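Question (not urgent): is this output format expected?
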Amino acid sequence: MEDLAKAHGVVGSVGGAYVDGKPIGVGSAGSRLLGGKGGKIPANSRFRIGSQTKEMVATVVLQLVGEGRLGVDDKLADLLPEVAENDLVERAGEITVRQMIRHTSGIPDWYAGKPNPDGSEGEDPSFDVFDFTTHYRPLDLVKWSRARPRTGEPGEKWSYSNTNYTLLGMVVERVTGHDLAAELHGRLFGPLGMTKTYLPLKPPEASRGRTATATTPTPTAGRATSTGSTPASPGRPGEWCPPRTTSARTSGRSPRASCCRRNSSES
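Got this back:
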């Protein structure tokens, strides 16, 4: 962990060891703020779990399928007519829920300012990573991807795209009539006893309690936050990164510490 905290672009790290699902120890390394400032990161701090949130969103979607409220072969244009009517997603009438879950929809990614030539996720973000106040609506993120090249035919091949799960979060809200945070809490966090895991939706929401580190913020409707002392996923991995829009806050202060994406478990 000390070596990880010294890696380029990393501020600090928090880790835990589990045996048969039971915690046997936690630890941390590095500082809470850039430049070694802010003191040591508490091992039981909360942290953002980034794209591990996708596993949780997929779980909620499949629960809705099991309840008969949604079908894996339902078309995006039928579920979210506005994306087709406003031409926000090319070929929305052919793209299915199954394809979005599997990243085989061909929908380009919105994350990078300069995506790869094939439309897949690039490196440098298309937003200011130190802006912790701007709220990005899910539909705004979808719009960012529209002018980018598709990554393939619907169902043709796998290509990672954050846009798929931005749209799935919107589908969950449309089908249930509740925001994504409420559905994640009611269906996963509450029943599984994940009392310290939640999904911030927009500023000024941020990490509640002591914060390990603020990971690179990203404008996505669906990044959860957890604490090192509570397993935050049925595997969910630690996307412990909320809606890429807010910074972690502690005692009314807003430390802006940025970790590299690999350290925040985003991919």
